[in-house]
Description:
This protein is α/β, with parallel strands linked by helices. Helix content is 57%, strand content 14%. The protein has a 5-stranded parallel sheet. The mean pLDDT is 94.
Amino acid sequence: MANKYFVDTDVLLDLIAEREPFAESAAFLFDLCDQGLLLLCTSTLCLNNLHYIIRKKIGEKGARNAVADLLDMLEVLPVNKNHLTASTTSAFSDFEDAVQHEVAKSDEAIKAIITRNVKHYAKGELAALTPPEFLDFYHANG
Length: 142
């Protein structure tokens, strides 16, 4: 079975908005997922945040289509009251990142969080890697 990783909102934005210079590594990450070499998941909160941000760039219809496309590729983990409660007392300075971390760590199969905001996850229990760091790790370890 392929290893499972949590993808943060910023990486989803890089992919959908084709933000340079980050889009290429995000696309490679999703190519590995598409090939079945790894499993990617995100949270309901990430997809909501993505839609809110991306609709300003590509319009409502484009944003909904982008979310629909991601739903075909990603496992989506729900945010629940336990995640939110734990986040209110976490050591994270950013509440949204605390919520993402709580969601990710609630799934024992998740090996790491893939994000461009690695510093935001420094106090977390899961490893946090940028997409390029993850791709280097993946190619070195398979």
